[in-house]
Amino acid sequence: MTKLARLNLILILITLACALSTVSANHRARKLFTELEAAQKRMRDLDVEWGQLQLEQSTLAAHVRVEKAAREKLGMKTPAPGQIISVDAVPAR
Q: Which end of the chain is more exposed for a tag (fewer CB within 10 A), N or C?
């Protein structure tokens, strides 16, 4: 094999290695981009769910709803003025 043929073979191998490396890098980039999009969609879905949960919590914890449940389910009622005792807090030392 002549010197020129060896050089051509080496250059062809280097070109082939570069081409395979480029294809591999593009494949990895596409795969990572797909994973990124999936993660962003999951984040948006979780944001929506968080908003729904906050709305549900504020509805369930509403003062009117709690008072109604206390009266109806537990039979609680507002104490008469004579039944209310005020306790003063002891100052911290």
A: C
Nearest one of 83, 84, 85, 67 to 75, comparing CA atoms: 67
Q: Does 79 fall in a domain?
A: no
Query: What does the alpha-carbon distance between residue 24 and residue 21 come to, in Å, rounded to a whole number?
Result: 5
| Model pLDDT for residues 37-55, shown as the tens digit of each residue | 999 999 999 999 999 999 9
Q: Is residue 68 part of a domain?
A: yes
Question: For the whole prediction, is pTM greater than 0.70?
Answer: no
Domain count, the chain: 1
List phi, psi (to 5°) of 80: -70, 155
